[in-house]
Amino acid sequence: MSPSEQQHLIIVGAGQAAAQAVQTARQGGFDGSITLIGRERYPPYQRPPLSKKYLAGELARERLWLRPESFYRDKDVRLELGVAVERVDRDRARVHLSDGRALDYGYLLLATGSRPRRLEVPGAELRGIHYLRAIDDVDGIAADFAPGRKLVLIGAGYIGLEVAAVAAQRGLDVTVLEAADRIMGRVVGAEISAFYARYHAERGVHIRCNTPVTGFAGGGRVEGVETPAGRVPCDVAVVGIGVVPNVELAEQAGLACDDGILVDAFARTEDPRVLAAGDCTRHPHPLFDYRVRLESVQNAIEQAKAAASNLTSAPRRYDEVPWFWSDQYDLKLQIAGLARGYDESVVRGSVEQRAFSVLYLREGRLIAVEAVNSPRDFMAGRKLIAAGLAASRDDFADAADLAALAARAESARDKDNNKDDKD
Ligand code: FAD
């Protein structure tokens, strides 16, 4: 692709990736017209505070906006909000909107995100059962929150546990039901799961693992959650059992999808005019020997930068170490890398002092770090994962200076890169 004044970029989905793509495209000199089309009636906003400060009532709605309205005006971006793209006609390079209009594109960026996985059980349609993805969802949940009410959270992933923390602090009676044998089992190791389970329990949250939900009970409004061990009474339920990528538009357009729109390291689909970024994609990554689908702000931002760079003269590869965070009570959990296929783990710091990290190693190389209130280990860990330095177990041990090791690894990598440049 080459830059052209004549080109019209249409971005489908007005979320985290979309806002970043606008910024990167304009910064890189793309001077074609840009239209941002979003199903929600809000300008692009941050989702992380939804299950944290916004739900707690500590953040005004306007503070969620990723950019002020003037940004889109200044960048000459047409915002089409409250309208969805229903069909993509790649032969004509045209999108069809839910209000009947059709728009032609030069480039199309699919940034359609993901949506909550639905729990398909009897009673799922009762009032008082919520999902959490968007501002309107949180407003609905918040209206149902009142001290003393019984809240059941279904799924002990990040979102469920963040909601549990907010609700427990608001004085609700909180129960978390998890089908697996430990909480956050999909995203963190056993030490961190056990620590968080204890922390929640100490704050009055009832956590029940190995407890799949088989249905909801109630007449009109939810009154209980059915499990094989019996009914758990409730006034409100929030379901957080993961997300599914929004790929339907891409599938309809005949683009390859497999649990995500398949893109290369430059966020390109097989159609040179169509890019995709964020939660809706699955992409190759130099750190992994499989395609990954990531659900994080960092992924949306970095992949959107790669996608938009195709419109300028300097395409850039997306190969950052993945990272993520979660806030629960006074605990900041930061994770870098993916702890899959490790052969050793090392715990650093003090679990009792609520400041510790778990490092995951494979063949002497750091592949992931999970840090609780330990930003230094998290930062050093990210650098070490990127550098791929092999070291002894002692180098990673509690007493070792991880930041110094990371600095050594970075300078060794820089030397290697300089040598490669000279060669
Ligand atoms: P989104 O931000 O979801 O935007 C996609 C948009 O596209 C949506 O508004 C959708 O309505 C719209 N859309 C879809 N299809 C169409 C269509 N056909 N036409 C028009 N519009 C369409 N990540 C972290 O890293 N840290 C966290 O702490 C964290 N906390 C989170 C808490 C919550 C409650 C949630 C929901 C997510 C959290 N995430 C967190 C994940 C993070 O917010 C997402 O990974 C990120 O928003 C993905 O950005 P995106 O642009 O791919 O998708």
3D architecture notes:
This protein is of the alpha/beta class and 423 residues long. The protein is 26% helix and 26% strand. The protein is built from 10 helices and 25 strands. It has a 5-stranded parallel β-sheet with strand order 3-2-1-7-19. A 5-stranded parallel β-sheet has the order 9-16-10-11-12. It has a 5-stranded antiparallel β-sheet with strand order 21-22-25-24-23. A hairpin with a 4-residue loop joins strand 4 (85-89) and strand 5 (94-97). Helix 1 runs parallel beside helix 7 (297-309) and helix 8 runs parallel beside helix 10 (402-422). The radius of gyration is 23 Å and the shape is globular. The model is unreliable at 1-5 (pLDDT under 50). The protein binds flavin-adenine dinucleotide (FAD). Residues 12-18, 37-40, 47-48, 50-51, 84-85, 111-113, 132-133, 159, 246, 249, 278-280, 295-298, 300, 324-326 line the site of flavin-adenine dinucleotide.
Q: How many extended strands?
A: 25
Helix content: 25-40%
- What form results from the Cα inertia axes? globular
Sheet with the most strands? 5 strands, parallel
Number of helices: 10
What ligand species are in this complex?
Answer: flavin-adenine dinucleotide
Strand % is 25-35%
CA radius of gyration is 23 Å
Average pLDDT works out at 94
Q: Which sequence of strands runs across the widest sheet?
A: 3-2-1-7-19
Distance between the termini: 30 Å
Low-confidence stretches: 1-5
Structural class: alpha/beta
Specify the oligomeric state.
single chain
